[in-house]
């Protein structure tokens, strides 16, 4: 459906343009205030009108030009041909306007923006392109005119972009551009040369047959080439330009590189190098002309030389060492930026790779030997040190492989020289960057020459026999012995090798070396606390004999036994626990026969003489297990300790993930048959449908538009005036309240409502009101054991208790399609199984299920809901509607098996949304009943007739958002006795009763003693409501007794029914519906029937109230 075209009434003001540009930047589209008055296709016309106005501010014009350029894809594809013609005329008017203060900047921005639109938007024809090019050429055709040289340079750049967008566009006027380049003497000559170079490049690339030096076509007026007008490229293809002219033009270009900046030189060389290749020129000419740029300190110029080297490597024969030497010197220059120094190193590494891959062995040797001497300085930045060390490692490995032998004499010396620059790691913390760089270099030295390919199994063995590996072993042992702070890093270094399939032997060899050379040095030390992580790794490796480790631990325990004192108790417990942990690791990974003699002595020593009682008890347990339990069963018992022993070093080198049991989907698909999540309080109405109206505009913020009257919008506190173009329906956003004439009664009602709404949280800017549903999670033991009972890995433990399973670390995740916000998950540490519990589950055949009040005794709560774990589902409703909360569960079984699946959904009813209205914090406790009664009367009046308050808004808490109210009324006749109504109200709706009128009804309810702290009125005021409502307007003045009409089934006779028979009084109830709505009941209680008048400011809830009242009173 197309919307009718909207004609603009008047041009946009400066403020309107600011708001419109802000809307586009936020959502890439205009908002309602613009689309209700204008169409999107009229926006370019409005922009051109504002640009041509003389009294329009210059900054706003610049903003409009940038806006047209930024959103050209959205604005111009829908414009007409008249708008396109006007677009070209507007550019001509701006450029040819008289020069004033600041107009030069406007002209240049107009040239840039209009050219960008012309290049990016495809809706413009060739005629429009010709118009813009004609204007630009007229501006360019004034060489050496100093006053507008900047504008001419901008025009040249615009022409160059048009030539790049439409290749061959300026090919017919190439001769004129050649003349202009020779004539120009100002700094704009750079733009002229780049324009002419672009034209020549496209002529050669497109093979256009034109003359580059002379032409008979006039410069202006400009006409596009004929083949471009016809839309065919057939005439443009051929042999191309004359070769002599091309050589003459290229020679002219190569004489003017000194006229370019560094960025322009990049553009220039990007086109000249392909031209030279096409003409098959000698690359030595380019080398002689441009090689000197590598000695500059500009990274762009150096990059140009490197590009030439990669394009013509033969032309730079013998110059590789000079280029590499220059890059090495650049990386050492401390006065230039660090980024440039790092870039020079990256270039150098790329050149080394290129040289290594070449076939000349002599050149490779000389270059690699030069790079091997390139050591980092002590005061270099850390990033520079890392790159230099990588370069040294690369050169060493490449030269070592090239020589065909092992450079054993220089390996250790080179390694020591590299570590001098990062020697601070020896006393810095293990997590420092300096330490990471040092061990990263060691790792590169070790495995850089070893590939990860399985086709070369001898690589690792040859590396283990190399002198580099021997020197590195000695270095690690010395560092670990002298600097205990490096132990976590050494452990991470070894683990990285052990976890690699290719280099696992290297890691194991390192551990064997530590066991042989480091442990004897540690026997003389009394404190082994810093070396415990390393000792754990030694205990895990079953290829290392445990005798040295057990002997070291025995001497360490003997030194602890001699310690006494008050202040060493906790330290002794910690150290003793670590020793027992190492003993447990030994029991888990080694054979008992290999450990029995030495480990039994150690554990006996700790049982008898260790100062800490807890350590002695644990040592006694381990000793009994070692003596009494066979080795294989002992490993199965101690196996969980192996799975929960993470690394103590938070290293970034690698991450070791602990093994986990797989999830078995075949056993988890029917979790709901034996894991039950049930509500503590059953719903009266089990809702299986939910009313969802897209026209309500309910969003994530929880606010809606009901009957096009209710709006919730942000109040602009800083705006001092309204937009004149805003429609009337949006004027409630203004910060100034509208002055209206009203009586004192209406003013009192509005003031009471403003005070009340000021305590309701604003869901947009703060957490909303929570609705909590109490549930119980139960586990049936018998079905669970039949499915998961066989997963127990210990047959002996199966006989202990197979009828009472348990789940550990249960996590419940909730989600819902209803607007309940983000629902927090629930964690249950432990869930014990219960005997099987049968519950009669009814079949949901209809859309609604009425639960009888008589069938919900407390026995059900004792049998089904009394046990299990308590779970609270916390909702933050954006809309007070029923729905379903889907539940997914993750848990761990006793055997470690992962249990995942979905449980039955938790129903949410309309009664869950009933909350007590909020009271201001300054309201005294004694006046709370009268406050709620007055609030009920105010909401009753406003929801009944909103003609006088339709334009009133009430600020929510925080003052950033306001709400408007539009009410809806309904009525329900209940043919039930008064006793049923009173009992059901006391049982389910007592917290929401605010007032009771009528002497007979007051006496009955007071005697019950359930409903308290409300307003009691023994004499009902008949005229009070009529008087109050009569002041609200004509629509609320009719307060005659409501008469319902019942249409019989047998005939068409209408039978009138009065309100109720034997009227006893009224019960007034106020329910708050989060996030900000209300539901009001006024029950006229009779002896045999009750008439319920309903009013609400959220009319969709009426779809559920009728079923709720029937379930509450009729059954």
Architecture overview:
This protein has 1115 residues and is an alpha+beta fold. The chain contains 42 helices and 20 strands. The strands form 6 sheets. Strands 13-20-19-18-14-15 form a 6-stranded mixed sheet, sandwiched between helices. A hairpin with a 3-residue loop joins strand 19 (1077-1086) and strand 20 (1090-1096). The longest helix is centred in the middle third of the chain and has 22 residues, at 382-403. Residues 242-634 form the AP5B1 middle domain.
Question: What's the layout of helices and strands?
Answer:
Layout: H1 14-27, H2 32-35, H3 43-52, H4 58-70, H5 72-75, H6 81-95, H7 103-120, H8 126-140, H9 149-165, H10 174-183, H11 189-206, H12 226-229, H13 243-254, H14 262-279, H15 283-290, H16 299-311, H17 320-332, H18 338-357, H19 361-372, H20 382-403, H21 408-420, H22 433-447, H23 458-464, H24 467-482, H25 487-498, H26 504-522, H27 532-540, H28 547-561, H29 569-589, H30 592-609, H31 613-628, H32 631-643, H33 665-668, E1 675-679, E2 685-687, E3 712-714, H34 744-757, E4 771-779, H35 781-788, H36 795-798, E5 806-815, E6 826-832, E7 848-850, H37 858-865, E8 869-875, E9 883-892, E10 898-908, H38 928-944, E11 954-955, E12 961-963, E13 968-974, H39 978-988, E14 993-997, H40 999-1008, E15 1015-1017, H41 1022-1030, E16 1044-1047, E17 1054-1057, E18 1063-1073, E19 1077-1086, E20 1090-1096, H42 1102-1114
Parallel strand pairs: 14-15
Antiparallel strand pairs: 1-4, 2-7, 3-12, 4-8, 5-6, 5-9, 9-10, 11-12, 13-20, 14-18, 16-17, 18-19, 19-20
């Amino acid at each position: 459906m197309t919307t009718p075209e909207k004609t603009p009434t008047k041009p946009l003001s400066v403020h309107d343009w600011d708001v419109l540009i802000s809307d586009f930047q936020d959502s890439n589209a205009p908002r309602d205030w613009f689309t209700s008055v204008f169409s999107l296709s009229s926006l370019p016309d409005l922009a051109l009108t504002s640009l041509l106005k003389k009294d329009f501010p210059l900054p706003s014009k610049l903003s409009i030009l940038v806006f047209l350029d930024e959103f050209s894809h959205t604005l111009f594809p829908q414009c007409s041909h008249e708008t396109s013609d006007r677009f070209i005329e507007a550019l001509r008017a701006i450029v040819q306007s008289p020069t004033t203060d600041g107009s030069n900047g406007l002209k240049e921005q107009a040239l840039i923006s209009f050219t960008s639109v012309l290049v990016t938007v495809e809706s413009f024809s060739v005629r429009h392109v010709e118009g813009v090019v004609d204007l630009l050429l007229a501006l360019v055709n004034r060489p050496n005119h100093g006053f507008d040289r900047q504008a001419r340079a901008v025009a040249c750049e615009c022409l160059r972009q048009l030539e790049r967008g439409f290749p061959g566009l300026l090919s017919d006027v190439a001769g004129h551009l050649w003349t202009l380049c020779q004539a120009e003497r100002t700094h704009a000559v750079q733009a002229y040369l780049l324009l002419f170079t672009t034209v020549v490049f496209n002529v050669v690339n497109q093979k256009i047959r034109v003359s580059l030096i002379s032409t008979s076509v006039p410069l202006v007026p400009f006409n596009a080439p004929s083949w471009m007008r016809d839309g065919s490229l057939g005439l443009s293809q051929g042999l191309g330009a004359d070769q002599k002219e091309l050589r003459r033009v290229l020679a002219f270009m190569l004489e003017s590189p000194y006229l370019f900046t560094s960025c322009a030189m990049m553009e220039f060389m990007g086109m000249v190098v392909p031209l030279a290749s096409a003409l098959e020129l000698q690359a030595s000419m380019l080398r002689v002309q441009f090689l000197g740029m590598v000695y500059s300190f500009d990274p762009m110029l150096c990059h140009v030389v490197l590009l030439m080297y990669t394009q013509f490597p033969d032309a730079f024969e013998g110059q590789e060492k000079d280029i590499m030497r220059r890059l090495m010197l650049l990386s050492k220059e401390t006065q230039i930026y660090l980024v440039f120094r790092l870039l020079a190193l990256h270039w150098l590494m790329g050149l080394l790779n290129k040289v290594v891959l070449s076939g000349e062995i002599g050149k490779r040797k000389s270059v690699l030997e030069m790079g091997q001497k390139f050591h980092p300085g002590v005061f270099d930045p850390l990033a520079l040190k890392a790159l230099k060390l990588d370069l040294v490692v690369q050169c060493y490995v490449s030269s070592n492989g090239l020589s065909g032998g092992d450079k054993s004499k220089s390996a250790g010396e080179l390694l020591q020289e590299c570590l001098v620059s990062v020697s601070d790691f020896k006393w810095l913390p293990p997590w420092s960057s300096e330490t990471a760089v040092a061990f990263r270099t060691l790792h590169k030295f070790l495995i850089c020459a070893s590939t990860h390919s399985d086709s070369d199994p001898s690589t690792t063995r040859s590396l283990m026999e190399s002198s580099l590996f021997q020197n590195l072993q000695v270095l690690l042992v010395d560092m670990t012995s002298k600097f205990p702070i490096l132990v976590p890093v050494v452990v991470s270094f070894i683990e990285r090798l052990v976890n690699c399939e290719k280099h696992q032997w290297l890691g194991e060899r390192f551990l064997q070396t530590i066991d042989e050379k480091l442990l004897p040095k540690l026997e003389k030390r009394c404190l082994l606390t810093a070396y415990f992580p390393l000792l754990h790794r030694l205990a895990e490796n079953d290829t290392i004999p445990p005798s040295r480790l057990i002997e070291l631990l025995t001497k360490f325990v003997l030194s602890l036994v001699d310690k006494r004192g008050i202040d060493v108790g906790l330290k002794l417990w910690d150290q003793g626990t670590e020793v027992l942990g190492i003993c447990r690791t030994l029991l888990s990974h080694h054979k008992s026969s290999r450990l029995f003699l030495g480990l039994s002595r150690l554990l006996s020593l700790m049982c008898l003489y260790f100062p800490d009682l807890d350590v002695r008890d644990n040592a006694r347990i381990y000793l009994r297990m070692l003596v009494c339990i066979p080795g294989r069963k002992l490993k199965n018992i101690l196996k969980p300790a192996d799975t929960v022993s993470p690394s103590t070093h938070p290293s970034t080198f690698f991450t070791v993930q602990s093994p986990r049991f797989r999830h078995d989907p075949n056993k988890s698909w029917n979790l709901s048959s034996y894991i039950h999540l049930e509500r503590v309080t059953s719903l009266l109405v089990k809702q299986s449908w939910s009313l969802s109206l897209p026209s309500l505009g309910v969003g994530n913020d929880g606010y809606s538009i009901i009957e096009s009257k209710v709006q919730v919008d942000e109040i602009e506190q800083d705006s001092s005036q309204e937009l004149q173009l805003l429609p009337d329906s949006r004027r409630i956003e203004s910060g100034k309240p509208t002055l209206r004439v009203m009586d004192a009664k209406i003013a009192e009602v509005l003031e009471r409502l403003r005070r009340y709404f000021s305590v309701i949280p604003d869901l947009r800017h703060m957490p909303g009101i929570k609705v909590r549903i109490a549930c119980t999670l139960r586990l049936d033991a018998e079905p669970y054991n039949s499915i998961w009972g066989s997963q127990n890995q210990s047959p002996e433990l199966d006989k202990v208790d197979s009828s009472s399973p348990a789940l550990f670390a249960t996590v419940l995740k909730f989600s819902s399609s209803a607007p309940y916000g983000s629902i927090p998950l629930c964690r249950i540490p432990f869930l014990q199984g219960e005997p099987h519990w049968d519950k009669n589950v009814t079949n949901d055949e209809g859309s609604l299920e009425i639960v009888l009040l008589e069938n919900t005794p407390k026995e059900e709560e004792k049998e089904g809901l009394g046990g299990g774990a308590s779970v609270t589902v916390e909702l933050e409703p954006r809309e007070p509607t029923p729905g379903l909360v889907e539940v997914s569960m993750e848990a761990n079984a006793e055997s470690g098996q992962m249990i995942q699946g979905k449980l039955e959904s938790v129903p949410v009813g309309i009664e869950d949304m009933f909350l007590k209205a909020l009271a201001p914090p300054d309201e005294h406790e004694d006046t709370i009943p009268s406050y709620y009664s007055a609030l009920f009367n105010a909401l009753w009046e406003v929801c009944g007739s909103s003609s006088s308050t339709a334009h009133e808004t009430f600020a929510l808490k925080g003052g950033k958002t306001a709400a408007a109210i539009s009410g809806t009324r309904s009525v329900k006749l209940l043919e039930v006795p008064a006793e049923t109504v009173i009992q059901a109200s006391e049982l389910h709706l007592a917290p929401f009763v605010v007032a009771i009128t009528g002497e007979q009804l007051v006496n009955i309810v007071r005697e019950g003693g359930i409903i308290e702290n409300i307003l009691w009125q023994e004499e009902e005021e008949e005229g009070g409501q009529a008087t109050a409502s009569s002041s609200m307007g004509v629509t609320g003045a009719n307060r005659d007794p409501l008469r319902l009409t019942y249409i019989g089934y047998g005939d068409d006779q209408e039978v009138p029914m009065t309100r109720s028979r034997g009227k006893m009084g009224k019960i007034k109830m106020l329910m708050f519906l989060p996030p900000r709505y209300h539901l009001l009941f006024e029950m006229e209680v009779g002896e045999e029937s009750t008439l319920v008048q309903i009013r609400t400011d959220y009319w969709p809830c009426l779809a559920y109230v009728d079923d709720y009242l029937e379930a509450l009173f009729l059954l």
